[in-house]
Amino acid sequence: MAEVFISYKREDREWAEALSKLLESKGLSTWWDKRLSLGQDFDFVIDHELEIADCVVVLWSIGSVKSRWVLAEANEGSARGILVPVLIEDVRPPLAFRRIQTGSLIGWKKIADDVFERLYSEVQKVLHSFPELESEKKGKYKIKPAVKDISKLFEKCLSKQKKFIDWRTKRRDKNDPLKLSIQAYSHEVTSRYNRMQIFGMTKPISLMDVFVDTRINEDLTWLQHHSAEQLNQITKQKAKKLDLQDVSIRGIKIANANKRLVVLGNPGGGTTTFLINIALYTLAGQMEFSALPIFISLWSWPNAEESLIDYITNQFDICNFPDAGYFITKMLECGNCLVLIDGYDLITDQKKEIAQELRNFMNRYSENRYILSSRIVAYDFAFADFKVVEVANFSEKQIKSYIGKWFAHSDKLRDSCWRMLTNNKSLKEFVNKPLFLTLLCIAHDENFGLLDKYEELYGQAIRAILFRWDASRAIKRRTVHSNLSQKKVELLLGYLGEYSFQVGKLFMSQKALEKKINEFFSKTAITIDDNPKTDSLYVLKTIQENSGLLVECACNVFSFSHIALQEYFTAQYIIEEQSEKTLIRENLFVPAWREVIRISAGMLTSRSQSDSFVQLIRDTISNFAHENEIQDLLNTIFSVVKNESPYSASANRALSLHGFLSHVRFPNNKILQLLPALDSQLLQYEILPVDMALTPNRVQTFERIRIRNLNWNKSRALENYIYGNQLLIDCLQISYTRKNVREEILTNLFLEE
């Protein structure tokens, strides 16, 4: 995905290429149409790249100001607030862009020129801002019903109906009764659905104030034919990212293009929010079609005593429509409605009968538009003529936009929240679903930006999707197992998570998971019989359906929905089993286990347990240093510390170690991050006063050490040693360790005798 999209006229190709090379030399990724591959759809690729770009640079020239393609691309950038216009010839920009400050590259010759630096600065401002889409700006998000458009639909359908003519004639005084009824209905829909109040929020907020455009995957990940081994290979190449789909398009675009649509998603993924957004946009006349939106929540219907048409009629009865059933039936017969059916997965009883009633309704009123939502695992493809798509996880751009909207009242909280995510890859991946991101924003807001124990957020999210999300809507789902309490379900997930980490595979086959579930039953003495509703497959599928904590990534291949949740459950299981010693001794230097160890440290509530845990880490690191004979290497590096250094002994050791690692160009040198914990004096300096701590001849000493003492084995051992100490500091910062234990460990950090 390119950060910068360059829009230009074909005759200005040399300018575009030169600008692209220079921006890329500054570390930015760019896209211009030279990057089109043979066989690619020209219009689709350009449209997609423009849509996902974070900045649009348009080059104004004599030719480009007249080009409809360049104007369209510039309009898109302007609408999203990410346009950087630049003159490359002495021309007036098109009328619509004359109010936007325009840079100039006229006379530009080389990268050192001030004109290029100013342009680069403007691009950086756009990339680091919190832009809103034009459709998401406050003025447009106030839902103003398109009464005229909806009135025309009624008039077109009912103008010859006597009931409609009589009602409109008898009730008409100063105001049109049709207009008043439509306004009443619009107000009812808006007040009912344009609000969000989840657990942890003291009052509701306007959904549209924080809504971020939903992105849609047209290729369903869980229908892909990959084996578990293939997916594990892909994941090794993509680090910890579990979302294997990289291409997504705007949900509104999909809704405009399809009359019959099924939208699938995992719990908290935003399917309901997407349907609400489409309903409100339709009311406001912001879709490419005109229709009367009808929203059906399947958790409040079905009702054995109420047909679907009766349920719909009741929504209009309160809006001053006389004989609402007659009017709405006529509108449906004319095909003037958008019917949004939310929560197909919530139907547990008589699912076949209800699905049949929905199909009958759709066949009877076949000219209308339909959008149906469901959790992925519960969808049974009961609607054969519907296009099925999947809600994509939030991209980094969407997360940033959401945070900008949520913290519109405080730039400080907005920036600190984004900075926290930027510094924590695991947490950023965790909040790629709207529910989890909302929980983070609530917690960050309530803690005034001081949230540091992320495992508490994970726990809150788990409770949300296991208990409170359904309970807040009075939804009952099937139980996982009659003998399996909620606590045992969490321990089962921890057992599966630990197994996944032990074998080094994020993706597991269904067969392997069933085997591990049966092992857990045996281990915990949970009885299991021949009833198909108590077998391991039933347990697996029910956990998947109820919580979405396990997801099917391809046919019969599963993973945890977020690696952060897998880490949380694994840590919880290890603490419950009291197997912390095995965790540290076997996995301290294995990066995949880092977050499990850190979360385990935060979960220990007893001070004595916390003391033992961090002391065990410290002892394991010391044993490693002696086994690999690196204490002499460390002591030689520390010899460059001045006797008169004003800093603590541990800070001096860290400074000299940082100096040596920098000298030998050591990868992942993060020693500086430890310094504030070792000596608070160092916080006052923007540039480290290394000369006050280390001797002038340190470079020569470091070079001598590199030549004489540093071979491949020692280099690898030193890397693991530093990694272990960094993890030790992390655990100290979030654990309940006693002050004297903490101070002793910090005082003796990097000191191996």
Give the secondary structure arrangement, pairings included.
Layout: E1 4-7, H1 13-25, E2 30-31, H2 42-52, E3 55-60, H3 68-79, E4 83-87, E5 103-104, H4 114-127, H5 138-141, H6 147-158, H7 162-171, H8 177-193, H9 207-210, E6 215-217, H10 228-237, E7 249-250, H11 251-257, E8 260-265, H12 271-283, E9 292-297, H13 308-317, H14 324-334, E10 337-342, H15 351-364, E11 369-375, E12 387-391, H16 396-406, H17 411-422, H18 425-430, H19 434-446, H20 454-471, H21 486-503, E13 508-509, H22 510-523, H23 536-547, E14 550-554, E15 557-560, H24 563-577, H25 580-587, H26 594-603, H27 607-627, H28 631-638, H29 649-663, H30 675-678, H31 690-693, H32 698-709, H33 712-734, H34 739-747
Parallel strand pairs: 1-2, 1-3, 3-4, 4-5, 8-11, 8-12, 9-10, 10-11
Antiparallel strand pairs: 6-7, 6-12, 13-15, 14-15
Q: Could you characterize the architecture of this molecule?
A:
By secondary structure, the chain is of the alpha/beta class. The protein is built from 34 helices and 15 strands. The longest helix is centred in the C-terminal third of the chain and has 23 residues, at 712-734. The chain folds into four domains: 4-129, Toll/interleukin-1 receptor homology (TIR) domain (Rossmann fold), CATH 3.40.50; 147-212 and 248-391, 3-Layer(aba) Sandwich (Rossmann fold); 396-471; 599-747, no CATH class.
